[in-house]
UniProtKB/TrEMBL annotation:
Gene3D superfamilies: Decaprenyl diphosphate synthase-like. Homodimer. Signal peptide: none annotated. It comes from Paenibacillus durus (Paenibacillus azotofixans). This is Isoprenyl transferase. The lineage of its organism: Bacteria, Bacillati, Bacillota, Bacilli, Bacillales. Binds 2 magnesium ions per subunit. Transmembrane segments: none annotated. Keywords: Magnesium, Metal-binding, Transferase. Substrate binds at residues 35-39, 47, 51, 79-81, 83, 85, 202, 208-210. GO terms for molecular function: ditrans,polycis-undecaprenyl-diphosphate synthase [(2E,6E)-farnesyl-diphosphate specific] activity; magnesium ion binding; manganese ion binding. Its EC number is 2.5.1.-. The active site is at residues 34, 82. Belongs to the UPP synthase family. InterPro entries: UPP_synth-like, UPP_synth-like_CS, UPP_synth-like_sf.
């Protein structure tokens, strides 16, 4: 009996239309794609199978975001801390951009998606950099969704590099300390040119930032879900955006 009620409830839930207003779509959504390894483990498969399926979820999320009218989608693909993982896993992750290019990019090009990358590209293997450069180049004239990959990205490293570059400008006499403003810092970060994320999504039940966009997320709305990244689909993005639309953003002021 309980089982029947649960399955009926589940079906009802799936049938519920998600109420989304076209007037309040987040411009920039950032996603910490987490749980690939646990998803695979649950199925008794090697972790890399999780990463493989995670790549498919990236394409689904990008298409769904574009359909919703989201302008920027930033995906945390590899952190500056992920080098600590076993070599085989890192090697596999570094090969994924080539696969993404070969398998997923054409469909995204058809959807007018433009690829962008942020992170320390110099530390990447040449084949990874080449694949990302090619994705950026092949989509450079597209005018739809900006799909921004954070690859070998770390929020603290980004701030460290920004401070070093400002310090150099001051030492060289090109900049006065008084000229350092939030806008100048914004423009010197790896996300320069993108608005701050309105909504941050993290999958897999973890509730931390893991060194992601520490400056830019200052006033973003946060949404966490227990589902693992390879399971992520349009319905989850819709749920997140619907929840976003129920929030009141006050930025320290009053409603
Ligand atoms: C996210 O999934 C992908 C990357 C961090 C590269 P994980 O690989 O972190 O999967 P879990 O968290 O171990 O399940
Ligand atoms: C964050 O996930 C990095 C990416 C999603 C690329 P991790 O799985 O590396 O984060 P921690 O180690 O659980 O904080
Ligand atoms: Mg993880």
């Amino acid at each position: 009996m309980i089982k029947r009620v649960q399955s009926w409830l589940g079906r009802e839930e799936r049938q519920q239309p998600v109420d989304i207003s076209p007037d309040n779509i987040p411009r920039h959504v950032a996603i910490i794609m987490d749980g690939n390894g646990r998803w695979a483990k649950r199925l008794g498969l090697p972790r890399i199978v999780g990463h493989q399926n995670g790549m498919k979820a990236v394409k689904r999320a990008a298409i769904a975001a574009d359909e919703l009218g989201i302008e920027y989608l930033t995906m945390y693909a590899f952190s500056t801390e992920n080098w600590k993982r076993p070599k085989e896993e890192v090697d596999f992750l570094m090969r994924l951009p080539e696969e993404f290019l070969a398998i997923e990019l054409d469909e995204l090009i058809e959807k007018n998606v433009r690829v962008r990358v942020m992170g320390d590209s110099e530390a990447l293997p040449s084949y990874t950099r080449k694949a990302m450069d090619e994705a950026v180049l092949r989509t450079q004239h597209n005018t739809g969704l900006i799909l921004n990959f954070a690859l070998n990205y770390g929020g603290r490293k980004e701030i460290e590099d920004c401070m070093r570059s400002l310090g150099k400008d001051i030492a060289a006499g090109h900049l006065a300390p008084e000229q350092i403003t939030a806008e100048l810092i914004d423009s010197r970060l790896l996300s320069g040119g993108l608005p701050d994320p309105d909504l941050l999504i993290r999958t897999s039940g973890e509730m931390r930032l893991s060194n992601f966009m520490l400056w830019q997320l200052a006033y973003s709305e946060l949404w966490f879900t227990d589902i693992y990244w390879p399971e992520f689909g349009k319905e989850h993005l819709l749920q997140a955006v619907a929840e976003y639309q129920r929030r009141t953003r006050r930025y320290g002021g009053l409603k």
